[in-house]
Amino acid sequence: MTQEYVSTADAVDADLFRHVVGHLATGVTVVTTRVDGRDHGMTASSVTSLSMDPPMMLACVNNSVPTAAAIERSGRFTVNVLGQSHGDLAYLFATPRPDKFAGVQIVRGVGEVPILAEAIAALECEVTEQVSGGTHSVFLGHVVAATARDGAAPLTYFRGGFGRFEFERNDRAYEQARDMVLSRVFAAGQVITVDELADVIDGDRARAFYALTRLATDGLIRRDPERGYVIAPFDVRTSDDTFEARLAIELGVIDRVAGQADPKQLDVARHHLDTMARYLVDDHFEDFHAYLDANYAFHESIVALSKNPLLIAAFGALSIKNVMARSFGVTAQSSAAFLAVQRDLLTALEVGDADAARVAARSYCDLAKARTRQLLALTGGQV
Ligand SMILES: Cc1cc2nc3c(=O)[nH]c(=O)nc-3n(C[C@H](O)[C@H](O)[C@H](O)COP(=O)(O)O)c2cc1C
To answer: If you measure from the C-alpha of residue 110 to the centroid of ligand 1, how many angstroms do you get, rounded to a whole number?
Structure first.
């Protein structure tokens, strides 16, 4: 993995950040609040003590989750610290649904905010300040009440797993779940729960949850506030939007670098193109996944010619491998035209011919969109 990022050393993209920051072990809490007579709660690990005098906590909450708006309006939050046997509560409060508190024992604290009866500690806070940080709001809270069950061991979170450091098993569960989505074991639009996924993988809910979270990041699963995890439909629009977004990025790169592209970076792209050619022979894939990896690395290295980390991150955010796996990956049949046009793109960049590079980038996008249409027609319009 580190090797892959050597060429873009100044760009810390989402995948790299998630991987590296996952080494920071944290506790797990459920942050609760209450507004307009309704209870809210969410699993949160980005919670920490801030100051002793006055006693203060902070909680980092994604602005897109309903609990963020609820805390902003109520001006209060309670940090419920989970114990080592509370993995179930962590899943429950991390999965969007309207009735998270059903069947959960609570007591009422200041401002009627719910406190989870099972929590090993609770800190009730009044918001003193709200700070914006990237996608999140950081709520600073003055602690007005605090209780703890002494001796209880906390639940910990490390590299996407609760309390256990079973990385390889987590990764295997993710890969298994990903293959199932890609091979359409689950239908588009189908709701999938942690329990259902656990049943079809290895029975372990923690690993099923880990897999669902990663699939959601990949864009293969959508988090619906009412329904929970839903298999994201893949259709012509998704495919067109993705390939056109990649084209827009590549055209921007061509405008910026044509005639002055870094030769070393062009060599990297050439290497990836040669790798692709080993796996797409004549009109079929010898090994689709190996082709896909090389294809991704090729386009990433084209985008990296810009030396602009934000563009590289935007390319990564397209989850293009998933789109390609769900379209081109359904059959070993392909076309040598894909390779030819990508070769034209690189050659044009090597000789500094911006017009030819633009033509090749557009042709590649058109070919990809047309191929998805053919494949969707074969599979009934949606996969
Ligand atoms: C272990 C773990 C830690 C999490 N930590 C945070 C966090 O610190 N901040 C955050 O915004 N979301 C965090 N989440 C995700 C939220 O729990 C999730 O988005 C939840 O659905 C939000 O609830 P709501 O949609 O009901 O508001 C975490 C999830 C897990 C499983």
So the answer is: 23
